[in-house]
Automatic annotation (TrEMBL):
GO CC annotation terms, alphabetical: extracellular region
InterPro entries per UniProt: Bact_Autotransporter_VF, FhaB/CdiA-like_TPS, GLUG, Pectin_lyas_fold, Pectin_lyase_fold/virulence
UniProt protein name: Filamentous hemagglutinin N-terminal domain-containing protein
Bilayer-spanning residue ranges: none
Length: 1018
């Protein structure tokens, strides 16, 4: 299970890392690595001295590379070929900083992750084609010197960009990518100067820089007077769009060049604000839109900005203007153009606008604005709505990295405070701090809202996020029209607040979160406080139709109430998630996946937890408190510990119609003593008005107090159907192999515990049973116990005790004795396993017969939901005595297309010479197969080893694993309707069973007072 689930983590990480982000450098570049000739014939040689030579046979050559990079001072030469296809199969973009030579050869460089020609790059070839398209293996092997046209599917796959800062000389140049950025047209040197032999095809934008010839001056408030800068308002100069370069969209439609004015220093960067248009709103108030398309010409040192404008530093580009009260909009204006950073950095920028809102390098990016290929470092602070790149974004931010520390009173984000546009291929490593509240995130403070769409994808945060408000490693709040996809957080999320919501990805999620990983610790706690409410590894609170799918948490999570490895508080849909971080809920409601499923709407489907979960009470391997929610296809392998009461391998408490289906626990479950009642179970601590079906426990269950069970500690007005336990169960009073207690308000005409068995040892003081400890109007049917049962009083192989007035009923129950399998109630003993199986089957109703496999002779009945059906005709197998019969069987099954786990096939050890019917001979473990095999095994005479004793049917050590939970499922799931929350929970009350009623009353626990949980701020 664990290894298979790790595939989800790896899949998400590979998707993010190989997403084509040009700002994540390939630090390991040297010469091309891992070259394999896949088409034509040729050789790859490295004569030394930082050189590589690829030699062909005069024709076409195709080479697959793990990576294709050339460092400055290195050279790659292509010789004796017409055309050569270099295709990168690895996950890193290509970075060319050295020389690439190929006289007369058409050199193709294809890398779906992106291509950068650095400023020191020198390319001298016959022709050059650089593309970020994907190319199937069969096409590469059949390379004929050309590339075919892209179809719609091929166009859709192109995500990565091409950036050229170097010098390229060739007879013809072809670029093909999502975006194409070229520092100047004169870097493309065509023989004879005919630029019509330059072909640029892009899905989105083609940016080419040019020098602005007109100059002006600018005063930045540094006491030095005017600084000479380009006059961007005039924009004069030779533009690439007038030079005859051929451009097109990838589908062949028209695509024009965006002529970008080059920016050389921080003064020219500030001068962008001078290129504006003034508009009036409906109330006749003026505001500005800053226009133009720009490109950084080189690295920008912005350290001088610390002394600008009386210490306020750089003035935000395209700042929003706050208009007087009563106007149609509080803030208007912004930046409407584009800035292509070309992979350069604006370093040590200072913006200190403590009295302003919407603060960042840009105040506001409008719907038409684009900021790409840029890294920013320095310090940025404001009052509210503060972002590293933009205070507010309605446009596109792509291939951007923020390293600046970003701070505000409220609503702060590493890239943008508020995102109503698209933020993709971005990273933040700067610290993010909010002192008063709002929405705070490593990438965005808030993403989308109820009316506007916000998209964050291919994003990474490594910066620490701290302060007050709704905090998230990626976004503080992901609203109903917000999407966060393919994102990774490695930064810590910390606060000493005791309200709001906190998550490794988002504090609150009302929209969609998918394909995400959190590796940062989320710790919301201060000594002497209750700790934070709604704390999760992915999201603190998943509400209002929020969906989370394909999510992994590896960070440690600490909070007060409603603390989960994936989500703290959930009334939405959670699917295909994994947690391996340790979870601590200081007050109550902690779960490996969800702290609390609230309001009868939360669902957790296909979940796996391997982290340890601990806290005061309501502790579960999957969900701490399942209040009417659904838990389906869930597995826990972490250890679960409650200081007080209510601990379960899947859920601490399952109530209000909550459902647990297809679940398994392997972790060790323990609990301290709370006024004598622990309520601890391998699957659920207390199943009150809920249901548990098709689930099993193999972990040991131990408690100091009462109500302890292999499946559930107590089952009150609830249903348990299709379960088994193999773990050792130990407690004080009311201890059972399946349930410590089964109670109902009245006598039932159906079974509240049915289709169950136990093979684990059961021990305690009083009311100790192999299936049930204490029954009050309990109803048990179709059960058997093979485990050892011990105690001081009222000890029985099936039910320890029944209330004398609320008499419990037991039907079709059996237990193991020295002489065979004895039927509970009438003393009939069945000496053989086959006889027991038949008797057990005879006592089943028609529907229950569908649940059990009772036709085997070697083992006690199995539950069918845990078996995979295998059928086929093996034919005749012959082998000498002492041979590996199992290997022969497996080989034959593989010929039939059937693959099985050999450890789950039994019956082939110690066979003497003779002929055996495989259908009669073979059997399986409970976690294995329902075998419907026909065929014959012929064992020939030979040296026979000593027979190996097979585990008897009474063996209490099963290693069952739910097959359906061992498969990693990555798919789109339907979202569940969610709304409303009930924050006054039962965690803060002690549960007592008195006669035939369930009482829930306030109580002070031994060490910690479980106080009423507070409603998190939204």
């Amino acid at each position: 299970m664990k290894n298979e689930k790790m595939l989800l983590y790896k899949k998400i990480m590979v998707t993010v890392v190989s997403s084509g982000m040009l700002l994540w450098p390939n630090w390991g570049y040297a010469l091309p690595q891992g070259g394999q000739v896949v088409g034509g014939s040729g050789s790859i040689g490295s004569p030394g001295g930082g050189a590589m030579e690829i030699t062909g046979n005069g024709g076409n050559l195709a080479i697959d590379w793990d990576s294709f990079n050339i460092a400055q001072g290195e050279t790659v030469n292509f010789k004796n070929m017409q055309a050569v296809l270099n295709y990168v199969t690895g996950s890193q973009r290509s970075e060319i900083f050295g020389k690439l030579n190929g006289s007369g050869a058409h050199v193709f460089l294809l890398n779906p992750n992106g291509i950068l020609f650095g400023a020191a790059a020198e390319v001298n070839v016959g022709s050059l084609t650089a593309s970020t398209r994907s190319l199937p293996e069969e096409v590469r092997k059949g390379f004929n010197g050309t590339l075919g046209n892209l179809d719609a599917e091929g166009i859709a796959k192109i995500q990565a960009d091409i950036v050229n800062l170097g010098a390229i000389a060739a007879d013809a140049i072809n670029f093909e990518g999502n975006n194409i950025s070229i520092i100047k047209a004169d870097t493309l040197q065509i023989q004879g100067g005919d630029l019509s032999k330059v072909s640029l095809k892009a899905k989105d934008n083609i940016n080419i820089g040019y020098e602005v010839t007109d100059k002006t001056t600018i005063d930045v408030g540094d006491g030095s007077g005017g600084h000479t800068v380009s006059d961007y308002s005039k924009g004069s100069g030779t533009k690439a769009s007038s030079l005859g370069i051929v451009t097109a969209a990838l589908d062949g439609n028209e695509k024009n060049i965006t002529d970008c004015m080059l920016v050389h220093d921080v003064y020219e960067l500030q001068a962008i604000n001078n290129n504006y248009e003034t508009e009036k709103n409906s109330a006749n108030f003026d505001y500005r839109y800053v226009n133009g398309d720009y490109m950084l010409a080189n690295e920008i040192d912005a350290s001088v900005t610390s002394s600008w404008n009386s210490g306020q530093g750089f003035a935000c580009l395209g700042a929003l203007k706050q208009l007087p009260m009563g106007t149609p909009s509080g803030f208007q204006g912004g930046f409407t153009g584009s800035l292509d950073g070309m992979g350069y950095t604006i370093s040590d920028l200072t913006i200190d606008r403590s009295g302003e809102s919407y603060v960042g390098l840009f105040g506001c990016l409008t719907e038409s604005a684009r900021v790409t290929n840029l890294t920013l470092s320095g310090s940025i602070s404001g009052q509210s709505s503060v972002g590293g790149i933009a205070g507010k974004n309605l446009g596109l931010i792509r291939n951007v990295a923020n390293k600046a520390a970003v701070k505000g009173n409220s609503s702060v984000g590493g890239i943008t405070s508020t995102n109503y546009g698209t933020v993709e291929f971005v990273s933040n490593s700067g610290s993010i701090t909010a002192t008063d509240g709002g929405s705070v995130g490593g990438i965005a403070g808030s993403n989308g809202d109820g009316n506007k769409t916000g998209i964050i994808k291919y994003a990474e945060n490594t910066g620490a996020v701290t302060g007050w408000g709704n905090l998230g490693g990626i976004a503080g709040v992901n609203n109903s029209k917000g999407t966060i996809a393919n994102a990774v957080n490695q930064g810590s999320v910390t606060s000493d607040a005791d309200s709001s919501c906190f998550g490794g990805i988002s504090g609150i999620n009302k929209g969609t979160i998918k394909d995400v990983v959190n590796e940062g610790d989320v710790k919301i706690y201060k000594e002497g406080t209750m700790g934070g409410n709604s704390v999760g590894g992915i999201s603190g609170n998943n509400i209002d139709k929020g969906t989370i799918e394909n999510a992994v948490n590896k960070g440690a999570i600490l909070g007060g109430v409603a603390v989960g490895g994936i989500v703290g508080e959930n009334s939405g849909s959670i699917r295909n998630t994994e947690n391996s971080g340790n979870i601590i809920g200081v007050i109550s409601a902690a779960g490996g996946i969800v702290g609390r499923n609230a309001n009868g709407k939360g669902s957790v489907i296909e979940a796996f937890n391997s982290g340890d979960v601990s806290g005061n009470g309501y502790i579960g391997g999957i969900v701490g408190n399942n209040k009417g929610g659904l838990i389906e296809a869930a597995a826990n392998e972490g250890n679960i510990s409650a200081d007080q009461q209510l601990a379960g391998g899947i859920a601490g408490y399952n109530t209000n119609g909550g459902k647990i289906v297809n679940a398994s626990n392997k972790g060790i479950i323990t609990s301290g003593n709370s006024k004598g009642d622990s309520f601890v179970g391998g699957i659920c601590g207390f199943n009150s008005g809920g249901s548990i079906a098709n689930s099993y426990n193999t972990g040991d269950v131990t408690a100091d107090g009462n109500y302890v069970g292999g499946v559930c500690g107590a089952n009150a007005n609830a249903l348990v159907d299709g379960v088994y336990n193999t773990g050792a169960v130990e407690g004080a009073d009311n201890v059972g192999g399946v349930a410590g207690y089964d109670g109902n308000d009245e006598e039932l005409d159906y079974a509240s515990i049915k289709n169950a068995y136990n093979t684990g040892s059961v021990s305690g003081n009083k009311n100790i049973g192999g299936i049930l400890g204490l029954g009050e109007y309990g109803s048990v049917a179709n059960v058997y116990n093979l485990g050892k049962v011990s105690g001081s009083a009222d000890v029985d192989a099936i039910m320890g005790a029944s209330d004398t007035e609320a008499v419990s009923a037991v039907r079709n129950a059996y237990f193991l004795t020295d002489s065979g399998y004895q039927k509970y109630g009438d003393g009939t003993v069945y000496a053989t396993t086959a006889e027991f199986n038949q008797a057990f089957a005879d006592g089943l109703g028609e529907e229950d017969k569908k649940v059990w496999q009772t036709d085997q002779k070697q083992t006690a009945p199995y539950l069918k939901p845990f078996l995979q059906e295998i059928s086929g005709d093996v034919g005749r197998l012959e082998a000498a005595a002492g041979s590996d019969f199992k290997a022969a069987l497996l080989a034959k099954l593989q010929e039939l297309g059937i693959n099985i786990d050999p450890d789950k096939i039994l019956g082939l050890d110690g066979l003497a010479a003779g002929e055996y019917d495989l259908g009669e001979l073979l059997y399986s473990t409970q976690d294995g197969y329902a075998l419907q095999l026909t065929g014959t095994l012929v064992v020939k005479s030979g040296t026979q080893p000593e027979p190996k004793p097979e585990a008897p049917a009474t063996d209490d050590k099963y290693t069952a694993t739910l097959t359906s939970l061992q498969k990693k499922v990555v798919q789109a799931w339907e979202q569940s309707l969610v709304n409303d929350r009930d924050w006054h929970i039962e965690e803060n009350r002690r549960i007592q069973l008195d006669n035939n009623s369930v009482k829930i009353e306030p109580v002070l626990f031994d060490e910690v007072n479980l106080q009423d949980e507070e409603t998190p701020a939204e």
